């Protein structure tokens, strides 16, 4: 066999790695350009991995696995005693989509749920999760109108993070950045056409959780 001729196993490995990388890119909603930038792998080299025309060296597999937060064996069968099945079953979790919020009900009460979105369990953050569907354009371009925003329930967020916040007597959830100016707390839109919402005793608000992911259907 010629030195540059691949064995059937090497060809299969390339196919498996390519499939895994494309799955991870879709799940994480990132581009090859972003992966190349964050891992310092040349874009043309990375393209070969995604197309299955070249085999990643062990150092680059480690960089890619670190970027996606998975094990090397999840991507590359060379790190696994068993060859993974391309059609292996993965665990999906149903995340509730919150619609209108009934006053006094817990946020994920059955009355408030307006469907579900399925997510791979391996890539979900810890904690109680729910989705909100973005209405209006106050958070564009960060959060497009009609996109789905995953929220992790927590009572506080860091400065300038996007949060789901209950307003209007705990009956309406809005997505805004949390900012402070002295002792004043503001809910700030990314769209500069919208003025900030100032939280006061007469205009109260309550943080539901932190926005951790944005997705949308084509």
Helix/strand layout:
Layout lengths: L7 H21 L3 H8 L3 H9 L6 H11 L3 H4 L16 E7 L14 E8 L8 E5 L14 E6 L8 E6 L4 E10 L2 E5 L8 E3 L6 E10 L3
Parallel strand pairs: 1-3
Antiparallel strand pairs: 1-2, 3-4, 4-9, 5-6, 5-9, 6-7, 7-8
Describe the overall structure.
It is a single chain. The protein is of the alpha+beta class and 218 residues long. The protein has two domains: 8-79, 434 Repressor (Amino-terminal Domain) (Orthogonal Bundle); 92-215, Umud Fragment, subunit A (Ribbon). Helices cover 24% and strands 28% of the residues. It contains five helices and nine strands; from the N terminus they run H-H-H-H-H-E-E-E-E-E-E-E-E-E. The protein has a nine-stranded mixed β-sheet, with no helix packed on it. The longest helix is centred in the first third of the chain and has 21 residues, at 8-28. Residues 82-87 have low confidence and may be disordered.
